[in-house]
Amino acid sequence: MEKKKIISIVAENVRTLMNQEGLSNNELARKCKVSAASISKIVNGSMSITLPMAMNLAEGLDVDMNEIIKGLTGKKTQKTKLKEQELRQSEQLSIGILSINNKRFTCIKDFSGKTIGSSELEGGLDLAETTGNLIHLIQESIHEALPDNEINEGKLKYAKLNLVTQSYEFEDTRNKFVLFAKKSFKDVILLPDWQITYLTDFKKAPGISLVTDKGVSLSYMHNGSVKKIGGWKFPVYDLGGENWLGVETIKHTIEAAEGYIPMSKLARTVLAKFSGKIEKITETCFKGANPDIYCLFSDLLLRSYFTGDAAAKAIVERGFQAIYRSIERADNIIGKQMKIALHGSLADIYKGFFEENRLITPSSDAEKVKLLTDLSEEYLEGHGVKIV
After folding, report:
1. Which of 97, 209, 311, 331 has its CA 20 to 30 Å from the CA of residue 181?
2. How do residues 222-232 score in pLDDT, each as one tens digit?
3. Fold for domain 3-74?
């Protein structure tokens, strides 16, 4: 079929669909994310369209792409066949990005379920950041996972994206982010780290996934649903986490420096870090906007803990007691003691406080991101996970 005939048929199809929907050139342009000038040329029969543009038009008009090219016949060129195959495959790309411990783990699988790329980058995904910056970090992770393949925005529109981010508890923020992300990807599922951790550790079986990091969260299965205790972000919650330990260290240091309690090795270590001045500790805590500033003090605490300092040991023990209250709460809800998978930067510290027969081998970050990539809404609903 000659080119002019093809252009004419497409123009007529688009005009008919626009009239049915009552859309102007400008309105269709906004829906299709192309210029109004291009839409004008298409409907006037003065511009040919590419296959991706036909798909954009179909999406904007909310019709099948066959409605755009209806009436066209003839053999497809090899180039067109390859392009269509590429688009069909990209529609079924599954992308999983796990943000945990200030890192991004990415796994990408093709339409057959085969892993075709992976990456690990510094810097997590925190919903407290701007949406634009989050999308940039997501795209960076994808390009790093597939360095030898050109993955443009057009292709990503047909990919499924499953994410684990920090600050998940900020409900309004996460809902806005999901709506925005769906403009760039076909489907978006957003989960907190405690849900994917539990699913990887236990699937549907009863148990406790305990994450002891900058914060602390505990997840368990009850009445067919994965539930959580804690993890509401410091200073509201997170008893026993790095930030909490850091604050306890500051309190101990100030009490020792002011003479309320005997001076300890821990207090001397902290004071030496700040030239012996309490005001420098205060300035450090209130200067800047780093929500995890107290982790600096937990580092000093743990150094003293490993040298056997009594004051440091007492603070860590109080941290474990705070965490164990949550474990007892979960045990009481279920009605029995459950196995525990212990995760996070403080796992090795707190591990020694547990009875060995209660602990199981925790899942790795690599296992989590692989499961994350495979997740579907049906799977999550079947495993008691509420979807955003």
Report:
1. 209
2. 988 999 998 77
3. 434 Repressor (Amino-terminal Domain) (1.10.260)
